[in-house]
Amino acid sequence: MTRYTSRSIFLHWLSGGLLAFLLVTGTFVLSDIPNTVEKLGSLKIHMILGIVATLVSVVRIFVIIKSPKPEVLLMSPLRAKLMHANHIAIYAVILAVGVSGLMLAQSASLGQMIFFGVEKELYSSFHDFGVGVVHGLLTKVLLFLVVMHIVGVVSYTLSHQSNIIKRMWF
Q: Is 135 among the domain residues?
């Protein structure tokens, strides 16, 4: 088999799209909006998509474990270990970001305000919560890991003159 299963490919790109949207909007948009009532609509979208991305990633992990793998790429043992470690780290950090996001929402009463209409004042900064700092830090780690994943794909493609993106495309 030269490529991943259609289910794995679909989940990869769905997860990638959701994560890209969440990382970009969370890092460059939400973090710059003051914590006022006007921010709640954007936080609602971010929270819903964050939950979806976390659940898609959990499903994806199970699909990866159960699905047949494509043929092994030719690479040095060190590069193979780094690639494997990067993939595991990406999944672990995605789950940690999801859990820290849920913990932050609970700590700051965001779920009650956004989904149940409880009227409370928003905290001036989500960094007032340790879990808010952790959530922000984990998103930067995830961004780094994703960039390293893309760099690895591009560098392998260039050095082996082989379009390995076909393995993860329909």
A: yes
pLDDT tens-digit readout, 122-141: 899 998 999 999 999 999 99
Question: Angle at CA 54, nearest 5°, toward 58 and 56?
Answer: 55
Q: Would residue 1 count as lying in a domain?
A: no
* pTM given for the model: 0.94
Are 138 and 96 in contact by the 8 Å Cβ rule? The answer is yes
- How many CB atoms neighbour CB 7 within 10 A? 14
Number of domains in the chain: 1
* Residue carrying structure tokens 């710059």: 32
Can you say how many angstroms the Cα of residue 165 is from the centroid of all Cα atoms in its chain?
A: 19
Q: Is 112 exposed, middle or buried (0-12, 13-18, 19+ CB in 10 A)?
A: middle
Q: Examine residue 140 and state whether it is found in any structural domain, yes or no.
A: yes
- Of 25, 36, 19, which is closest to residue 121 (Cα–Cα)? 36
Instruction: Domain of residue 120: give its range.
Output: 6-168
Q: Determine which helix (DSSP H) or strand (DSSP E) holds 51, and give its type and residue range.
A: helix 40-66
Q: Are 53 and 19 in contact (CB under 8 A)?
A: yes
Q: How many Å apart are CA 23 and CA 37, to the nearest integer?
A: 22
